[in-house]
Amino acid sequence: MSPARRRGPAQRSSRERPAPQLTALGEEVSDYVRARVPLLYLVTWEEERVLRELEAVAVRLRKRCLVWTETDGLRNVALPNEAVARRAREPAEVLGTIRRDDADALYILVDFHLHVEKAGVRRLLRDLAHELQTSTKTVLLVAPRLVLPAELEKEVTVVDVPLPSRAAIARHLDLVGERLGPGKSSLSAGDRDELIRSAQGMTLQELEQSLALAMVKLGVIDRRAIELVLREKEQLVRKGSALECVRWDEGFESVGGLDLLKDWLASRKDAFSQEARNYGLPAPRGLCLIGVQGCGKSLSAKAVARFYRLPLLRFDIGRVFAGIVGRSEENVRQALRLAESIAPCVLWIDELEKSLSGARSSSVSDAGTTARVISTITTWLQERGGEGVYVVATANDISNLPPELLRKGRFDEIFFVDLPAEPERAEILSIHLRKRDREPDDFDLARVAAATRGFSGAELEEAVIAGLYEAFSARRAMTTEDLLAAVERTVPLSTTMQESVGAIRAWAKGRARRASSAS
Prior knowledge:
Layout: H1 3-6, H2 24-34, E1 39-43, H3 47-60, E2 64-69, E3 73-76, H4 91-100, E4 105-110, H5 119-132, E5 138-143, E6 156-160, H6 166-180, H7 189-199, H8 204-218, H9 225-234, E7 243-246, H10 259-267, H11 274-279, E8 286-291, H12 297-308, E9 312-315, H13 327-341, E10 345-349, H14 352-355, H15 362-365, H16 369-383, E11 389-395, E12 413-417, H17 422-435, H18 445-451, H19 457-473, H20 480-488, H21 493-496, H22 498-508, E13 513-514
Parallel strand pairs: 1-5, 1-6, 2-4, 4-5, 8-11, 8-12, 9-10, 10-11, 12-13
Antiparallel strand pairs: 2-3, 7-9
Helix pairs in contact: 2-3, 4-5, 6-8, 7-9, 8-9, 13-16, 17-18, 17-19, 19-20
């Protein structure tokens, strides 16, 4: 048998392999290589997946594929033992080797972003870029973040590698199921679609780790694995960004009233599915909740995330402002990119008017920083696409909101959350009593609800807590009289800020949908 026949598939030269089927990323890189673009910078966390795709590109184009890492130096992927002289480990040394080499090849430099800011390396890369334009060699930098000195901006083509698509996640899920064998996966068609949707924004390795954890904990991959996947996504935001991952332990069963809002959300629940995309529906964009303080807007934002079974990210816009001019806008862009990277998710922007107040005086108070931040956010709200990020914004004082934020197209709908009506107040009281292991039927809630006209949901909760304190101090069970006494001592916000509440109600009339039919 000839030596060529004795080599295994991994050792065959690229000329002996059949041309593989390329992904969209592979096709894009292949086009750049054929166009003789000298330096490509691929930004990705999925090093292993991208290296496999680049090797497939090399096979398709009948080029050699050489990979450099600081630990192993430069090596041939197909012939790992080839030419020890190629094992250049120093950054400057490997660039010199590439310049001298006359091979028709792809040179993949992994984690080279750690070295590009060195003066000598920058100069070598610029020289190499000029020389490669007339050669059949291409250099590809693969790194998890973009580090590009100004001297190289015109020499390097940047490719942001997308995270796995729904189709790629579905294929990987099938492969995992095949490896586990029959009986180890009991996902219905609907659960499988929800798991794939929940896994969007994860790498295939992160998905596999979550599924492995499901097997260890549950012994089977079923609907419960969806929650493990969502928990894994929480790890992505536990960095020093303006995003905070919020657990949605409570759903709409903890939200009294707001029947019109609940019905509207229920009618769009299936709009996140692939079936809706195939039907021609665009992905839901989000909603804005405007209303009186303490009436359940923040709780509703958490309930929306649980209702749609999506991770909830709280966007603290106040944390993006920094002292260096231009840094605040970049902080906003980074936070929005992070939200998109783990999509689909719910992005909760709480008390929007406090974060973005002062836009009109921005030019004289902060050199226009606030105005630019608002522009960045409004542009993103308008132009974001795909299934990505479902935004829930809440606001109390609309007078401080920039009018461009409330324009149609930023959100699917704007809802006005008013003070709860009498039946809703009774429902809210029942919810808070059950939370504290009290039976609502033991109290005359109709009487308490009638006595709490103008109370917000938060004030009703405080009345229940105050009644419990009163009863506890006397070492007896709480009664209706304790609740009424607590109500008597409370002056609601609707009374102390009557003009502000009236202004919000006047603005909402004809401008926003009612969240409750009873208000």
